[in-house]
Amino acid sequence: MPVRHHLQTLDNRVRGRLALVTGASGGIGEGCARALASEGCDVVIHYSTSKVGRHSSFPCHRKRAFKLGADADGERAEVVASDLRTQYPDQVFATVAANLADRGSARGLVPNVLGQPEISSKHKAISILVANAANGRRIRDVGEIGEDDWDEMMEVNSRSQFVVSKACIEGMRAQSWGRIILIGSIASRGGGINGCHYAASKGALSSMGMNLATLLAPEGITVNVVLRFATRLVLSLELTLSATCLQIQPGMMVPSGMVPTPKGSSWEEGCDMERLRAEDPGLAIATMVPVRRPGNPAEVGNAVNM
C-alpha cells in the first residue's frame, strides 16, 4: 500500500518547552538562554568543567593555564540561572556541567539533564537545543597548529555537537517536535580570524546541520545553523523551508501570493506529480518542502527580529 504523507501544521510555540543551551555561562550562550526564557521556555544552562590548558586530555595544552577555570564557569552559570529564576518565577532554570572535550562527559550531558528531579518531573525530552559551546582558542598560522590542536578542535566543535544533538533527537522524534540551532562561524566559509583547524571544525558542523535539516524536517524537527563573526551574528542559514537553498525563502509563503493555498492536505508517495501540479499546485509545491508545508510570514519576521 502506498505511503500517504500529510501536510504538517504550523507549530512554532516554545512556551513551556525545555531548552538546553550549551556554553551558556556567558556571551552568546547566555544571550540565547535569556532570550528563550523571555519566550516562556524552561532553560538548562550548560557550563564546561574544564578549560583548555588546565585539564585538557590533549598533551599540548596541559601547561597552558587560563586565569578562569571550571569553578568560575559554574559560578557564572548559577548567577545566570538565579537571575532568570527571579525574573521568571513560574519557569524552571537549572545548570549542568560537562566537559565536551571528554567523550564520556559529552555522552552523559543529556541524560544528566533529564535526570535532574526538577526537570524529569515536568519534561520527558529536550525540545530545543542551542549548541553554542565551542573551543575558539585562536592559532592563525598553520605552521603553529599541531596535530593535537586539530584533534581537540574537532573533538569539541564537531564530534561533541554530533553526540549531544543525537541524544536530543531521540526525545524530539518521540514527540514529533524539536528545534536544533547550531552556532557555527563565518570561518566555515574560509573567513574569520582563526586558523584552518577552527575553520574545518565549524565547516563540519555546518555540513552536519544541512544534512540533518533535510533528514529531520518531515518529522517536525527543524535544524538551523547560525554563522557568527567575533561576537556578532552575521548570517542565519534557514534550512527548514528549502532542501537546497541556504537562505530564507519569502516566496515560499502562502500569503505572499506566489504560492497558492493547498486545496488538499495529503498525498501518496510516488503519485503522479504532473497531475497533482495541475489539480492542486499549492499541495504540489508543499511536497517539495522538507517541513511539508508552506512557510508563514511570522517565521521571516522572527529571523529578522533576531
TrEMBL record:
SUPFAM superfamilies: NAD(P)-binding Rossmann-fold domains (SSF51735). It holds the Pfam family adh_short. One of its GO terms (biological process) is monocarboxylic acid metabolic process. PROSITE patterns: ADH_SHORT. This is 3-oxoacyl-[acyl-carrier-protein] reductase. It catalyses: a (3R)-hydroxyacyl-[ACP] + NADP(+) = a 3-oxoacyl-[ACP] + NADPH + H(+). The keyword NADP applies. It comes from Geosmithia morbida. Keywords: NADP. Belongs to the short-chain dehydrogenases/reductases (SDR) family. GO terms for molecular function: 3-oxoacyl-[acyl-carrier-protein] reductase (NADPH) activity. It comes from the Eukaryota. CDD domains: SDR_c (cd05233). InterPro entries: NAD(P)-bd_dom_sf, Sc_DH/Rdtase_CS, SDR, SDR_fam. Its EC number is 1.1.1.100.
